[in-house]
């Protein structure tokens, strides 16, 4: 079945370490997105990519980095520069030329900094 | 800046009753889409309903309907015949339609409880 996978579901990191969250989609979608969810904050955009080898910063990009080398994959690296990385991270994708360009979401990754 | 405001952090409804969740947005764009997403305890985001700004007719999906007031920039969600499975966080979201695939702008959410 087509869909979006995120791994791992739970991730623990020590302070000062970089960590990479995986996001893969087999929906043949052009665009991919990373959102961060904190209690009471809704979802906030970190980065997004409309095509391969191109991406744009969102509202809270500081301390994060991404790459888009393949259409199917959009990994997010949380660097040690991110001051408060403990959060729930959601990846999404959407197809160009779809009427609503509806975004489909993965199951998320819960990152905890110890 | 584009913003989405959900003024009700928490709501509750009796099973089989009707509840309305509020959402207002701020934009200078004339063409955009509006969405309501549901996030149950599993935390999987599920699209509930969507509305194109140029359509005057309110969208409806089974027990879910919206009241879209473009001039007032209001997009409320009505859930009829509430069921226990409707208990979740509900997020209102907005995106402009220009420039291809644009990100969603979310409100902070409304937590809906359904009382048996």
Mean pLDDT score of chain A, rounded? 92
- Most extensive contact: A-B, 26 and 24 residues
Molecular shape of chain B? globular
Task: Tell me the span between the first and last alpha carbons of chain B.
Answer: 41 Å
Helical amount among residues of chain A, as a percent range?
A: under 10%
Helix and strand succession of chain A? EEEEEEEEEEE
Mean pLDDT of chain B: 93
Please identify the structural class of chain A as seen in this structure.
mainly beta
What count of helical segments of chain B does DSSP give? 0
Low-confidence stretches of chain B: none
Task: Tell me the span between the first and last alpha carbons of chain A.
Answer: 36 Å
User: What is the makeup of the main sheet of chain B?
Assistant: 6 strands, mixed
Tell me what portion of residues of chain B adopts beta-strand conformation. Answer: over 45%
Main sheet makeup of chain A: 7 strands, mixed
- What is the gyration radius of chain A calculated from CA atoms? 13 Å
Rg of chain B (C-alpha, Å):
14 Å
Number of helices of chain A: 0
* General shape of chain A: globular
Structural description of this entry:
- The complex is a heterodimer of chains A (114) and B (116).
- Chain A is built from no helices and 11 strands.
- Chain A has 114 residues and is mainly beta.
- In chain A, the strands form 2 sheets. In chain A, strands 2, 4, 5, 6, 9, 10 and 11 form a 7-stranded mixed β-sheet that branches. Chain A has a 4-stranded antiparallel β-sheet with strand order 1-3-8-7, with no helix packed on it.
- Chain B has 116 residues and is mainly β.
- In chain B, 0% of the residues lie in helices and 52% in strands.
- Chain B has no helices and 12 strands.
- Chain B has strands at 3-5, 10-14, 19-21, 24-26, 32-39, 46-52, 60-61, 64-69, 74-79, 88-96, 105-106, 110-115.
- The model of chain B has no long low-confidence stretch (mean pLDDT 93).
- At the A-B interface, strand 4, strand 5 and strand 9 of A face strand 6, strand 10 and strand 11 of B.
